[in-house]
Amino acid sequence: MHPETSVTAIIEKYQIPDIDQYDGDCLHDKLLSYMAAERRNTPWKYLRETSKRSDYQSEWNTDMRTYLEMIFPGDEFVYDKSIPADIQRDHGATTVRRYRPDARCEKRKLIVEFDGLPHYQELHSIFNDRERDTWARDLGYKVVRIPYWLPLNVEDIDFLFGVHVPEGCPLKFGLFDNPNRDYGIGISPASFCEQGALRFAREFEQLPAVTQEMLLDDLALVTEANAYGIDALPSCISYLRYGDN
């Protein structure tokens, strides 16, 4: 986070009306209330692979199918199904393997994966992702991984898929500062293993500048973490807060 950034500055950036009557912690509460209203009023929320999971929250989440139908209207995607052996062989696989991408479009030779929190906390998930990506790319697929913390705005969709969606996804609220989830500590980079934190840094550094700024603003609001002496950004990636990446 840039040193001069504060909750007040973030609220001013979001153009929340009548902020002069708030001070101190009330400003923080006002921002949370504003973001809650934003969540209720937009269909475009943080991605989850399916609405059928128990951790899916309609206030916070939009399922992958809804996003992909908007980004690629009319294209057929297969969800959570193994790639058939004949298709693997047609793409040059010498050994058939069981691999179930979250979403796959043969027309575009595209695989889309949603990466939840375990993909940043568990070493075996991190290494399995790398191995599977290499295998799929060797067969000619483009692999797009979407982290649970990424706000799929217009710029991010363009960056990830090369598709411009001018009217979609005006996300203006954060993920981490959620009172229902231990004030964001448990889902912020503070909870990542070291390899997960480094993965976050690599992915962060490739994102559009507008998304980087939004993510850092969001992490700055994890005030409860600071109260307990926990930095939302682990020391190995704390340099990101100053923008000198």
Notable characteristics:
10 helices, single chain, alpha/beta, two-stranded parallel ribbon, 245 residues, disordered N terminus, 6 strands
Q: Can you lay out the helices and strands and say which pair or pack?
A:
Elements: H1 7-13, H2 25-41, E1 46-48, E2 61-63, H3 64-71, E3 78-79, H4 85-90, E4 103-105, E5 110-115, H5 118-121, H6 123-138, E6 142-147, H7 154-161, H8 194-206, H9 209-220, H10 223-227
Parallel strand pairs: 1-2, 5-6
Antiparallel strand pairs: 3-4, 4-5
Helix pairs in contact: 1-2
What do these coordinates show?
Residues 95-146 form the DUF559 domain. It comes from Bifidobacterium tissieri. By secondary structure, the chain is an alpha/beta fold. The chain has one domain (7-242). Helix content is 39%, strand content 9%. Strand 4 (103-105) and strand 5 form a beta hairpin. The longest helix is centred in the first third of the chain and has 17 residues, at 25-41. The model is unreliable at 1-5 (pLDDT under 50).
